[in-house]
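#lab-general

N.A. 3:47 PM
ok so I finally got the sequence cleaned up, no stray characters, all 184 residues accounted for. can someone with queue access submit it? mine expired

B.Y. 3:52 PM
send it over

N.A. 3:53 PM
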Amino acid sequence: MKKATQRRTARIAFFENKVLRKIFGAKRKMKLQENEEKLQENKAELHALHSSRIRTLRNKTRKDTQIKLYKVMAIPTGLYASETWTLKEKDRSRLQAAEMRFLRSVVGVTRLDHIRNEEIRYNLKVNSLLETVDEYKQKWWEHVQRMSQDRTPKIIADYVPIGKRSIGRPAKRWIQEIKEPQRA
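B.Y. 4:20 PM
back already:
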C-alpha cells in the first residue's frame, strides 16, 4: 500500500510540475518578448545617450593635450622593447586596433562614422604605431650591424642553426621582418 501511495504522489507531483512549467514558462516567454520589444524600441535612444556620454567625458581635456600625452607616455610605454618583437598579422592588427581606439576617442568619432584610419592620423598629425615599430626595428638592426663581432647581439644575429628543423611551417624569424617589406 505504501508503494502505491508513493507512486500516486509521484505522478501528481510530476503532473503538477508539468502544469506549473507550462503556466510559468508561458509567462516567462511573454515577459522575454515584452522586454525584447522594449529593448528594440529604445535601442537607438540608448546608443545615442551612450555615445554622447562618452564624447562628453572625452571633451574634458583638449585634443592637443591628449595627443601630447599619447606621444610622450603611451607610445614609449607601449612600444618598450619593440625592436625585438616578432609580430604576426594578428599582433599587428591588435596593435593598430588599440591605437585607433584611442585616436578615435580623441577625435570624438566611432567606427560607425566610417572615417578611415589614415584620415584620423592625418588630422591629428600622428604616425602609425606599426610604422614606428618598423622604424625601431630597422634602427636596431643597423646598430647591431655596426657592432664588433664579439658582442652578443651581433653573434645572435649572425647565428645559423645546425641540423634538421622540425616538421611543419617554420616560425617567423625577427630577421625576416627586417629583410622583407611589410604589407600595408
